Amino acid sequence: MTRPESTTASPGSSSGTSGTTGVPWRHASAASSPSTPATPTSTGSRPAARPTSSSPNSPPAPQRAEPAADPFLDRATVRGLYATPSRLTSRTAALRNARVRGTPAEEVIAELARRQNPHGLIADIGCGRGTTTLALARALPTCPVAAVDSSAPLLAQARSRTRGHRVQVVAGDFHALPLRTRSAALAVAAFCLYHSATPAAALSELRRCLRPGGVLIAATKSTTSYRELDQLIAASGLDPEAASRPSLYRTVHSGNLDQLVHAALTVRYIRHDEHVFRFDDLDQVAAYLATSPKYHLPSELLGHPEALTRALKNRLPNRPITTTSTVTYVIGVRDE
Ligand SMILES: C[S@@+](CC[C@H](N)C(=O)[O-])C[C@H]1O[C@@H](n2cnc3c(N)ncnc32)[C@H](O)[C@@H]1O
Fold first, then answer.
1. b/e map 154-165, b = 16+ CB within 10 Å
2. Tens digit of pLDDT for each residue in 263-286?
3. What does the alpha-carbon distance between residue 314 and residue 229 come to, in Å, rounded to a whole number?
4. pLDDT value at residue 78
5. Ligand 1 site-directed mutation target among 89, 108, 145, 192, most atoms within 8 Å of CB
6. Alpha carbon distance 135, 130 (integer Å)
7. 112: how many CB neighbours lie within 10 A of its CB?
8. What pLDDT shows up at residue 66?
9. What pLDDT does 30 receive?
10. Which keywords does the record carry (predicted)?
11. Thinking of the domain 68-223+248-278+323-333, which architecture would CATH place it in?
């Protein structure tokens, strides 16, 4: 099979079916504009500091970073999180290195997709760096794949990683997808819908893009995922409230994904996989923890695994740390 080069199309640059991949992009006027990557703040993930009040005679008060109430839903913070691929790359690598039980999600999703035997467009929504996109393209080489994400830098990496496959990447928001109505045979929304404050609206938009008989594979994790790491941060005293900070999976999690999909589609399949991670020592766990905006840590520790390792070692005995996560997959079908 000839595999055309992957190309980038913005919703504004293509309103028909792409000649190279057969992806039916939605007309520009109906699609969201590509996102502009945010400039990270000094913390790498926190919103800009808010000035504190001061009297005319007092010296300027030091500015304190105000963390967002829920950093995983705050739009500016989320843009900052995905403004470059590096944080996601470090985070994924730290988890991959520590995983002792559980199949990588991209392998599960590609196998579930292959079993659906789709004929036509596959849409990987919130594709990030393209890990799942690549697995889908390999598993179903005859299907064109549209990879959509709101982060231009992550899309650039997805494009380069899927070069040589029948993949086209495009900037777009999953609340207003740049895909035509009833165009996709299969859609994937893996580990992204939890960044929506209105996931039901995002799922309704995904339904719009599926053709009758089209299938959605959605994936998320449990709210209790990695809680041993929250407890570790709390025990260190670096953020005593760490265990009660909002979970990344608060809006879309293992306990409500089927209900959310059910509101838009007919649920056909639910699967919960237990993953176990064993970090050998504080150095290894800090490589993961430093990538999280969840904790209220001093800015010099966020995004700085070596500094975070030192701070943890000053407060806790160095030891292996085991943590778990439930990964949930739900398949929904558009009946008509
Ligand atoms: C944790 S990554 C998951 C990437 C990929 N699906 C995977 O499983 O490896 C979350 C992705 O969702 C994207 N995202 C967040 N909000 C979005 C939105 N409103 N529309 C489209 N993509 C969004 C981010 O840019 C990021 O690439």
1. bbebbbebbeeb
2. 999 999 999 999 999 999 999 999
3. 17
4. 86
5. 192
6. 9
7. 19
8. 58
9. 28
10. Methyltransferase, Transferase
11. 3-Layer(aba) Sandwich (3.40)
Instruction: Spell out the domain ranges in the chain.
Output: 68-223+248-278+323-333
* Cα(212)–Cα(336) distance, integer angstroms: 5
pLDDT digits (tens, 9 = 90+) for 109-159: 999 999 999 999 999 999 999 999 999 999 999 999 999 999 999 999 999
Ordered strands of the 167-171 beta sheet: 7-8, 167-171, 145-149, 121-125, 184-190, 210-221, 321-333, 266-279, 99-101
Identify the pLDDT of residue 115.
98
Contacts of 317 (CB under 8 A, 6+ apart): none
Q: Give the closest residue (by CA) to ligand 1 atom 4.
A: 128
Specify burial of residue 304 (Cβ count, 10 A radius: 0-12, 13-18, 19+).
middle
List of the chain residues with pLDDT < 50: 1-20, 27-65
Kindly tell me the number of DSSP H helices and DSSP E strands found in the chain: 10, 9
Query: What are the φ/ψ torsions at residue 230 (nearest 5 degrees)?
Result: -60, -45
Spell out which residues line ligand 1, taking CB within 6 angstroms. Answer: 78, 82, 126-128, 131-132, 149-151, 154, 173-174, 190-192, 195
